[in-house]
Amino acid sequence: MVDKPTGEYEEDRRILLERVISETRETAGLTGYAQLSESVTRALATVPRHRFVPAAQQAWAYVDRPLPIGCGQTISQPFIVALMTELLQLNPQSVVLEIGTGSGYQTAVLARLARWVYSVERIPELATTAAARLRELGCNNVDVRAGDGALGWAEHAPFDAIMVTAAAAEVPPALVRQLKPGGRLVVPVGSPYQTQDLRLLYKDEQGVVQGRSILSVVFVPLIQDPA
Ligand code: SAH
Questions:
Q1: Contact 96/118 with Cβ under 8 angstroms?
Q2: Among 24, 41, 57, 161, which residue's beta carbon has the most beta carbons within 10 A?
Q3: 129 CA distance to ligand 1 centroid (A)?
Q4: Is the pLDDT of residue 54 over 90?
Q5: For residue 68, is the peptide bond before it cis, meaning its omega torsion is within 30 degrees of 0?
Q6: From the CA of 107, how far away is ligand 1's center (Å)?
Q7: Residue of the nearest CA to atom 13 in ligand 1?
Q8: What value, to the nearest 5°, has the Cα angle with vertex 83 and ends 132 and 22?
Q9: DSSP bridge pairs for 189
Q10: Which domains does the chain have, with CATH numbers?
Q11: Residue 225: per-residue pLDDT
């Protein structure tokens, strides 16, 4: 696939955005969100998804589905990226932790909305590529590191919001600890390669955590290497 000039993706991106907006409306009964906020819509409309996928996948960059990014991993479906971002209710002061950098696409979307994004990726090769790509695209409020995201990133905790983009068998306790009172955590919970339960957790000002299920999703597993 030959790379098209960036302008030629505009129409594809507009169609994708419409698809995401209508999918948001159709799932409102489950998610509680009939509309994407303006800031999330703008982030989705501006981050060039074709720059985050391998050349062989570029023709499908603006189709609403996950795509392979190498190392057996995938870039998430745009609708799910939009929904998970919306659920965090970010503002320009938010400091966010993301687990599972992958291509860096979701990181770039978060970085448009938040003050700073810390992102942890288990596979060093993906972490290095994503960090370089984000830098190239002028995304300079992001730190990426290779490591086990289930442990969070204690040096920068607590976080206003945490997003996990790989399926965990249980919500990693370190992440709950590293969430600020008043903060939100979104995480797919369940067995690998089956449908999982996308969960939204909220820590109230007293530190009490409540959660609700949002939607069935399919993510690659959150892998924890033996210590
Ligand atoms: N948000 C990504 C989607 C990545 S898929 C994107 O937009 O492209 C999930 C990613 O989680 C994979 O890259 C995988 O390597 C990573 N991952 C799996 N287990 C992990 C762990 N314990 N810590 C950090 N990253 C992990």
A1: yes
A2: 161
A3: 13
A4: yes
A5: no
A6: 11
A7: 102
A8: 115
A9: 168, 197
A10: 6-217 (3.40.50.150)
A11: 81
CA distance 187 to 157: 18
What is the biggest distance separating any 2 CA atoms in the chain, rounded to whole angstroms? Answer: 54
What secondary structure does DSSP assign to 95-112, as a single string? Answer: EEEEE--TTSHHHHHHHH
- 119 as an active site residue: the answer is no
Predicted confidence (pLDDT) at residue 2 exceeds the cutoff of 60? no
Q: How confident is the model at residue 214 (pLDDT cuts 50, 70, 90)?
A: very high
Tell me what pLDDT residue 23 has: 97
Q: What are 93-111's pLDDT values in tens digits? A: 999 999 999 999 999 999 9
- Closest-CA residue to 10 (of 50, 38, 39, 37): 50
Taking 70 as the threshold, does the pLDDT of residue 132 lie above it?
yes
Q: What is the CA(69)–ligand 1 centre distance, in A?
A: 11
Q: Position 128: which residue type?
A: T
Q: Assign 224 a pLDDT band (cuts: 50, 70, 90).
A: confident
Q: What is the pLDDT of residue 1?
A: 39
State the Cα–Cα distance between residues 94 and 22, nearest whole angstrom. Answer: 27
- The number of the ligand 1 atom at minimal distance from the alpha carbon of 223 is 19
3-state secondary structure 11-58: HHHHHHHHHHHHHHHHCHHHHCCCCCCHHHHHHHHHCCHHHHCCHHHH
Provide residues with CB under 6 Å of ligand 1. 69, 73-76, 99-100, 102-103, 105-106, 120-123, 126, 148-150, 165-166, 220, 222-224
